[in-house]
């Protein structure tokens, strides 16, 4: 599943001094192991591009690299955001991740995080007066409105952007409205300016001549590997990790009716799937709890395999269509 030694050598010879190395692909294809090997050979440092691994906690369910793996090569963008923070954005990630002196080796499964580092595609509205937290808070307030109402408001100020977004895509519609509210400029106009020097999918490359690996596998074989990985997570203490995290961070939110599984670390694949198990009444019998546990395990396996397909779809539909990649991408 990982790239062969021959393919690695081929690409590295082609770009002996790359400005950036990127390793992408579906979960479970061996990206982290390849990143560590390249990091050791090229004396680089690994940038984790995973939107859930930036948060402290849930190490097993988010599949963070182990302490032993981190010791082999320096890793960044792991375990530094408080789990209760709901306003950490891809712009925050981009601004922090790019502050490196050594060769950055970007690896992870959150494709829009990778996209934010490779291309100049993101609008930064932090200069609007109250910083990123304020902007994100306003966006979350907008998301509380109905999809039709949000879309109607967007159509009034930015009809071009509204024509590209479905009313059900509340998060993107709210983001476009927030950008207009913060800057006074339609989101569609910002995107047009960013595309200058780039292509139809976004702005120009941020780094010249990046070295990019796409790891992929036969889906039947990958499905088996992902199922086995969930079983391994269970054997290494997944349920204890989930229960501890629920008691420390989630139970009070549920009692206050302030919890949702759409923001922050609480949207991690594997946490919400065990909601019924974690919130089962204390009076539940062991048989009932076992049934809820098995239900969570099956839901986790299904969600993980679905996510792997979503990651591959993004690579094919967005990444491979960019005209800058013909000399940069190694498919293995």
Automatic annotation (TrEMBL):
Q: Which InterPro entries match?
A: Dimethylallyltransferase (IPR039657), IPT (IPR018022), P-loop_NTPase (IPR027417)
Asked if the record carries the keyword tRNA processing, the reply is yes
Q: Which UniProt keywords apply?
A: ATP-binding, Cytoplasm, Metal-binding, Mitochondrion, Nucleotide-binding, Phosphoprotein, Transferase, Transit peptide, tRNA processing, Zinc, Zinc-finger
GO cellular component terms? mitochondrion
Q: Name one GO biological process term.
A: tRNA modification
Per the UniProt entry, the Enzyme Commission number(s) are: 2.5.1.75
> Where is it localised?
Cytoplasm; Mitochondrion
Top-level taxonomic group? Eukaryota
The UniProt entry's coiled-coil ranges are none
Catalytic activity field: adenosine(37) in tRNA + dimethylallyl diphosphate = N(6)-dimethylallyladenosine(37) in tRNA + diphosphate
Q: Which GO terms describe its molecular function?
A: ATP binding; tRNA dimethylallyltransferase activity; zinc ion binding
Extract the Pfam families matched here. Answer: IPPT
The cross-references to SUPFAM superfamilies, in alphabetical order and at most eight, read: P-loop containing nucleoside triphosphate hydrolases
Q: Provide the family line.
A: Belongs to the IPP transferase family.
Q: What's its job?
A: Catalyzes the transfer of a dimethylallyl group onto the adenine at position 37 of both cytosolic and mitochondrial tRNAs, leading to the formation of N6-(dimethylallyl)adenosine (i6A37). Mediates modification of a limited subset of tRNAs: tRNA(Ser)(AGA), tRNA(Ser)(CGA), tRNA(Ser)(UGA), as well as partial modification of the selenocysteine tRNA(Ser)(UCA). TRIT1 is therefore required for selenoprotein expression.
Query: Under what name is this protein listed?
Result: tRNA dimethylallyltransferase
Organism expressing this protein natively: Poecilia latipinna
